[in-house]
Design a protein that fits this description.
heterodimer; A: about 325 residues; two-stranded antiparallel ribbon; B: alpha/beta; Rossmann fold; six-stranded mixed β-sheet; 19 helices; 24 strands
Chain lengths: ~325, ~500
């Protein structure tokens, strides 16, 4: 092959590049635009805004990172929000009952165990009953909604809390540093498992072609369960990080997380059908875009009531760009 | 017999990439005729009929329908103009009622103010089923209730009407029971008597000789000859037709040259009295260093045996044994060193929307994984080795499989298991669509594997391949073993076809 390329070929390869990376380009362009707007409109309150963005986005980023494994398979989970709510309430109850650092550790471990159990349930039941996994996660969503209400009824109040000093460093910058460290650690772990281990390769394989993956010796049932359990770990960590910020929980805690995570991943370029194009970066890029967007719209002075309409418009545009591909089916 | 030409094709050529499926075919189909088309797999029978019925377009050439130029763009258009075809593969819409299937696309006739009167649709459909003599099928039922055979009959009801002038039956009878066949035979003879033209494709020689009024033999995309009824009734007709079908000399060089059918004494894989689906009490011992070939027509059960040996079929009785362990699923099979090249390449053997490298290393990942870590360099090396040795035509291992040609895809599917180093290989049509040069390389590799003591189950629709490669050929027909042939220089396709058809 000759090394010379004529302009037409160059243009062709450029178009081919565009076509191949349409997800990434759309996702990164979205992040760049929201970031620029953020810098412009942040103005004097830039540093304060940045901290707010970090604190509000941390739980979503962590949970979205875990969700990468589930979405890679072309599956989804709508029970996350209610899970986060129940886990926060449980942690508060355990911390208040046991007290001190021991309470925090016990609370977290209890929640982690529960999250793993739910993950296993989500994965296994969907396979055994041959149901789309969204159905089992719907079941869990209702179950946890009930549990959340029941737990709150038992306390007799609308909201319970723990002093945040128990959960995080009192110093503001130390708190921010801890958040950054947790996000970095989870990102590294998820990236490692996604790129360099069987977990990532198998989950993407399941999303791309489950039959062929199974016939290559991958016990898809087992790996579905493992993927959901990995997600569970991130849900537990995310719940703790959320509690670090608020220190309290009530009947409505966690509502909306499941949808937020789905939106974030899609904004970040995750194909809804899963498969080989699923990437860990979708969680980071998408969540940052989403949180920055909300922040931008507020600082730009968009009426609070209008923000959701603007989000809806942006969301549909991104979907049109990324999902108008052959086989771009909705998650099961 | 009338001499009115219904369909005429002139110098029709069809190329699939470099493959020449039809090399300038001239043919006339007359009214009041049932013309049989016979030939080996890939001889162009289905290609010619699918062009006539609008399923695909010819690369070049002309067609005339009742003397007018004929260029159907879809099967629907062809059917509206009176040319209908039923295929070998299932073609019904699942989860709909029988009536909805029969009248799919024709609901306007039953609509008032754009609301479809489903009752009328169902009644009309039922009348068609009754007229056709299959009253046991109820129009209001979901099509899912009916098996493959009944669905085939429903398809026939759907595509044949009073306006049908040309009816193409493409290897449909293998899907039908005797009763279903008789219904179909009655239909085509009625159509013949009405002065319509029937084109009948089948591998069943008896059926062809009984039902057809004329016969055309195709080989390698060319017409070898026509026989009229008198010639078909000649005492040596069957031999003559078979010779016309397979007469080609095969370049011997690329198959195994030795006739050493010895193998090691150890059994590598055993099927012990297995029963599942239509297959009953099948037993087989595959030894180390042995190549057992399975031949027959596509629907004869040989593909199912391969699936069962890989643990993909749920057995109603019997066992699949490897190293003394029972294989009940494909995970175990792979763990015990069994590899399987599925015939259903795009759906089962490969992840199309993934890189070549990702596909090749997939079964080997557990071996590449050290304390959870899989080195990308090791993956790349493994993939590169297979890409080079099979000469997979690609830029690099990162290229997606769906960008490859069929033959190159097949090489990837083969490469998965050579990379894994499986000791037992079940190959279902491993050389499908592969060009001659690579075919030769694959055969050399299979021969090499035998010498290394690997056990191979070679399932193939190509008789030449089996005769050229296998130590022992098991021929199946209607889910039963119809014959067994030992490897020998004298063995010819004519010997084998006796058991196939």
């Amino acid at each position: 092959m000759s090394t010379k390329t004529n302009p037409a070929e160059k243009q062709n390869s450029f178009l081919a590049f565009l076509g191949k990376h349409v997800y990434d380009i759309a996702a990164y362009a979205g992040l760049a635009v929201t970031l620029i707007l953020f810098l412009i409109f942040g103005g004097k309150r830039l540093s304060y805004n940045a901290q707010t963005v970090l604190q509000t986005s941390a739980p979503t980023i962590i949970i979205a990172l875990g969700a990468v494994f589930v979405y890679s398979m072309g599956y989804m989970d709508v029970s996350v929000g209610q899970q986060v709510g129940v886990y926060a309430i449980l942690m508060i109850m355990i911390i208040n009952a046991v007290g001190g650092v021991l309470g925090v550790i016990l609370g977290f471990l209890a929640v982690l165990a529960l999250a793993l159990l739910c993950g296993a349930f989500n994965g296994a039941v969907a396979v055994w009953l041959k149901l789309p996994s969204i159905v089992t996660s719907l079941f869990l969503m209702f179950f946890f909604t009930g549990a959340q209400l029941l737990l709150m009824e038992s306390t007799g109040t609308n909201s319970i809390s723990v002093p945040t000093s128990l959960l995080r460093p009192a110093n503001r910058s130390a708190y921010n540093l801890v958040l950054v460290l947790i996000i970095v650690a989870v990102t590294l772990a998820v990236t490692y498992f996604s790129r360099f281990t069987k977990l990532g390769k198998y989950t993407r394989g399941i999303g791309a072609n489950e039959t062929a993956t199974a016939q290559s010796g991958v016990n898809t049932t087992k790996w579905k369960v493992i993927a959901y359990m990995a997600f569970g770990v991130c849900v537990a960590i995310g719940s703790y990080v959320m509690l670090m910020r608020t220190g309290s929980a009530g009947k409505g805690t966690g509502t909306g997380y499941a949808m937020d995570i789905m939106i974030c991943l899609i904004l970040g370029g995750m194909p809804l059908s899963g498969g080989m194009k699923s990437k860990v970066s979708s969680a980071l890029v998408g969540t940052l875009t989403y949180v920055l967007l909300t922040n931008d719209l507020t600082t730009m002075g968009v009426d609070l009531n209008m923000i959701n309409f603007v989000k809806a418009a942006i969301f549909i545009v991104i979907i049109l760009i990324t999902c108008r591909k052959h086989g771009g089916v909705l998650p099961r | 017999m009338s001499n009115e030409v219904v369909i005429e094709v002139r110098n029709v050529v069809k190329n699939f990439g470099p493959t020449r499926a039809l090399r300038g075919v001239d043919m006339k189909f007359y009214a009041g005729q049932i013309r049989g088309l016979v030939g080996e797999n890939g001889s162009g029978k289905s290609t010619i009929t699918s062009i006539i019925s609008g399923m695909q377009k010819a690369t070049s050439g002309e067609m005339f329908y009742h003397g007018q130029p004929w260029n159907p763009s879809t099967m629907v258009e062809a059917q509206e103009k009176g040319i209908s075809m039923v295929l070998q593969e299932a073609n019904t819409i699942p989860d709909c009622t029988v009536a909805e299937n029969i009248f799919a696309g024709q609901f306007d006739e039953f609509s008032k103010f754009r609301i479809v009167n489903m009752k009328k649709v169902t009644e009309a459909a039922q009348k068609m089923l009754d007229d056709f003599g299959i009253s046991h099928i109820k129009a209001a039922d979901s099509i899912n209730k009916y098996g493959f055979e009944d669905r085939k009959l429903i398809e026939i009801v759907r595509c044949v009407s009073d306006d049908t002038q040309v009816f193409v039956v493409d290897e449909t009878t293998t899907a039908l029971s005797l009763e279903g066949r008789n219904i179909l035979y009655k239909l085509i003879h009625k159509m013949k008597d009405e002065g319509k033209s029937v084109i009948f494709i089948s591998h069943d020689m008896d059926e062809i000789l009984e039902q057809c009024t004329d016969l055309t033999v195709l080989r390698d995309g060319e017409i070898i000859g026509h026989l009229d009824r008198a010639e078909m009734d000649a005492p040596d007709a069957v031999q003559r037709i078979r010779y016309m079908m397979v007469g080609r000399e095969i370049g011997e060089a690329y198959y195994r040259e030795d006739y050493d059918t010895s193998h090691l004494p150890e059994v590598a894989l055993e099927l012990q009295d297995i029963t599942f689906g239509p297959i009953e009490h099948f037993s087989l011992k595959l030894h180390k260093g042995e190549i057992i070939g399975f031949g027959g027509l596509s629907g004869c059960g040989m593909h199912e045996i391969g699936r069962a040996a890989f643990g993909l079929e749920k057995l109603a009785g019997g066992k699949v044994l490897r190293n003394g362990k029972e294989i009940t699923n494909c995970y175990q099979a792979i763990k015990e060193g069994i590899g399987y090249i599925s015939k259903n390449r795009d759906k089962e053997a490969l992840i199309l929307e993934a890189a070549i490298g990702e596909n090749i290393v997939l079964p080997s990942l557990p071996a590449l994984s050290h304390a959870t870590f899989i080195s990308p360099a090791a993956e790349k090396k493994m993939a590169k080795k297979e890409i080079d040795s099979f000469r997979i035509k690609c830029n690099n291992g990162k290229q997606w499989v769906n960008t490859l040609s069929g033959g190159n895809k097949q090489k990837v599917s083969f490469g998965k298991w050579t990379a894994k180093g499986s000791d037992v290989l079940i190959m279902d049509c491993p050389t499908r669509g592969v060009d001659i040069g690579v075919k030769q390389a694959m055969y050399a590799l299979i021969g090499e594997m035998k010498k290394q003591g690997k056990a191979i189950l070679l399932i193939s629709e190509e008789m030449a391949e089996l005769i050229g490669m296998a130590d022992r050929i098991i021929v199946m027909k209607d889910f039963k073993v119809s014959g067994e042939l030992e490897r020998s220089p004298e063995l010819s396709e004519t010997d084998m076809i006796e058991y196939v058809i």
